[in-house]
Design goal:
By secondary structure, this protein is an all-alpha fold. It contains three helices and no strands. It has helices at about 15-25, 30-35, 40-65. About 0% of the residues are buried.
């Protein structure tokens, strides 16, 4: 899994870096790396997942009404 960004000759480096960061963010690579930085207990994963699911369900219920 490699991410490639093609840079033209006249393009500034900071603009290319910004494009790279956006691409990494869109593909959830940064989020995955941060999540795997430290070990997380399985019960903590379940608790976090349940919390996210409850939040999304609450938003769905709020917008259905």
């Amino acid at each position: 899994m490699s991410i490639e960004i093609k840079i033209s000759k006249r393009e500034p480096v900071d603009r290319a870096l910004r494009r790279l960061k956006k691409k990494l963010e869109r593909e959830n690579i940064i989020k995955g790396v941060r999540a795997k930085r430290y070990f997380e207990k399985p019960c903590a994963k379940r608790r976090r997942r349940n919390k996210v699911m409850a939040f999304t369900q609450m938003l769905r219920n709020r917008h259905e009404s």
